Amino acid sequence: xxxxxxxxxxxxxxxxxxxxxxxxxxxxxxxxxxxxxxxxxxxxxxxxxxxxxxxxxxxxxxxxxxxxxxxxxxxxxxxxxxxxxxxxxxxxxxxxxxxxxxxxxxxxxxxxxxxxxxxxxxxxxxxxxxxxxxxxxxxxxxxxxxxxxxxxxxxxxxxxxxxxxxxxxxxxxxxxxxxxxxxxxxxxxxxxxxxxxxxxxxxxxxxxxxxxxxxxxxxxxxxxxxxxxxxxxxxxxxxxxxxxxxxxxxxxxxxxxxxxxxxxxxxxxxxxxxxxxxxxxxxxxxxxxxxxxxxxxxxxxxxxxxxxxxxxxxxxxxxxxxxxxxxxxxxxxxxxxxxxxxxxxxxxxxxxxxxxxxxxxxxxxxxxxxxxxxxxxxxxxxxxxxxxxxxxxxxxxxxxxxxxxxxxxxxx
Length: 412
Fold this sequence. Notes:
The protein is α+β, with helices and mostly antiparallel strands. It is about 45% helix and about 15% strand.
């Protein structure tokens, strides 16, 4: 059977299922466990209070000036409490009832900017769409969406790093470039987008995350850090998924036709299967704070306190031992059989305490845009280039160009 996965990182191994590396005691280098088994990966991610966040350079984020620990890098009871308080913004029923009309209006407006017979770059349109939708949820509504989009994108122009090293393997010059490339866009993001939103919410609360943070006593700097988190997770990564899903649908006539006539539940199943096959974030990192015993079949291992754990999401999601006998983890099979308790998206939104709360929002907003896009019968003119981003440990898709027919069939 031919593999259907399009985002394949050159040289990335898919075995062994559990691997220990770097245990030679070299200074500044962590012992790293590569977990490619779905069974073992879920055990690590569900080892509540035995691990701390180590991805997204979390361990290099200074905490001294923050009154509140950021939700992305908090752990234990504090993280549980933070998650409980923001859950109401991402509950499926709330997302559907509150944001569907705005998503539909936004999608129609952005698609309507390309006339019949015209061309559009989907990844650029998807960026503005996801920024506008997520900005409404977060409360970043007092500034220009296109300009905010550019500021968020500029934050990702970072030098490479090695997360297995305590200093991230960067030279002094690279750290200086990272600070300049990161802090300058964040400063602009604060001044142009976050601060005006905070000022407006201090005058009058709304039903959004910034208003909630103001009520919780967060400082402006605390709120900025949270907005960067939601900005990267809710806007930038969803942009990549929308583009990837469209790429699969436009290259597979049968899947596209099925999606076009399906009800919402079946469309969601198709999107969940695409993101299982093509997880935007390919690696999740945890630092063990206590020994963790993991098993995979008849094998067992103990991860010691201080070890770094790399949950290899692309491998775990395609784990052949987690599939039905007649199914291939690298094929695209909506509604496939998965082990009991495994999300239809696999580990693409994480698992355990740090599971992404924005899954319902990401799937719904992707569906709203894609149904309207495909109803216009676009023609694929240029396929995207696949790139890789170290910060999110995921793929980027750029340059997917579409042409709308001279006589548009209208929106759905």
